[in-house]
Amino acid sequence: MVLLLCHTVLAFNPLKGMISHMGGFGDDYITISDEDGKEYELEHLDTIEFEGKLYMAFLPVSDNEDEVYEMILFRVVEENGEELLETIQDEVEAERVYQKFMEQLFSEDEDSD
Fold first, then answer.
1. Cα atoms in the 13 Å half-sphere on the side-chain side of 17
2. Distance in angstroms (rounded) separating the CA atoms of residues 17 and 2
3. How does DSSP assign 46-82, residue by residue?
4. Which pLDDT score, from 0 to 100, does residue 82 have?
5. C-alpha angle 33/38/43, rounded to 5°?
6. Which secondary structure element, helix H or strand E, spans residue 100, and what is its range?
7. How far apart are CA 44 and CA 7, in angstroms?
8. Which letter, b or e, does each residue of 36-69 get, where b requires 16 or more Cβ atoms within 10 Å of its Cβ?
9. β-strand 18-19 against 82-87: which pairing, if any?
10. Cα 8 off chain centre by
11. Is 82 left (phi over 0), alpha (psi -120 to 50) or beta?
12. Which tens digits make up the pLDDT trace of 56-112?
């Protein structure tokens, strides 16, 4: 299990952040930027509500097929009417959210068999 934990709040606009991308597993790609303006392209895997909070899981986008991907988890928060993606700083919360995403992802795989 690999979790990416950092201490950054990322600006996220679901309409402005969506980009088109050919290939991959789906059409849910976003570009986000950190506090320093550095941009990251991520593939949205899933969104869940867990213990009264909204969480989103992503994978970094890369053209290198040999690269090992790490799931990136964010908590969705609203600030001044804008949705922001906030990193999960509490390791216990991050682990519980990760387990919930894994349960959901694997249950979807089993349902499709």
1. 22
2. 25
3. EEEEETTEEEEEEEE--S-TTPPP-BEEEEEEEETTE
4. 85
5. 50
6. helix 91-112
7. 20
8. eeeeeebbbbeebeeeeeebbbbeebeeeeeeee
9. unpaired
10. 13
11. beta
12. 999 888 777 777 778 889 999 988 888 888 889 899 999 999 999 989 878 866 666
CA-to-CA separations, 60 to 65, 74, 79, in angstroms, rounded? 12, 13, 25
| Beta-carbon-side half-sphere exposure of residue 43 (alpha carbons within 13 Å) | 16
Sequence-ordered list of residues with C-beta below 8 angstroms from that of 71, at least 6 positions apart, any chain: 2, 3, 4, 45, 57, 58, 59, 98, 101
